[in-house]
Amino acid sequence: MAQSSSAIRNVKKDVAFKWEGRDRKGQKVTGRLVAANEQALRGELRRQGIAATRIKAQSNSGGTGGKVNPGDIAIFSRQLATMLGAGIPLVQAFEIIGAGHEKPSMRKLLLEIKSDIEGGTSLHEALAKHPLQFDDLFVNLTEAGEQAGALESLLDKIATYKEKTEAIKKKVKKALFYPAAVLAVALIVTTILLLFVIPQFESLFKGFGADLPAFTQMVINLSKFVQHNGIYIAVVVGAGVYTFLYFHKRSRKLREWLDRAMLHFPIIGPILNKAAIARFARTLSTMFSAGVPLVEALESVAGATGNIVYEDAVLKMRDEVATGQRLQRAMENTGMFPNMVVQMIAVGEESGSLDTMSSKVASFYEEDVDNAVDSMSSLLEPLIMAILGVLVGGLVIAMYLPIFKLGAVV
Question: What is the DSSP annotation of 266-313?
Answer without folding.
Answer: TTHHHHHHHHHHHHHHHHHHHHHHTT--HHHHHHHHHHHSS-HHHHHH
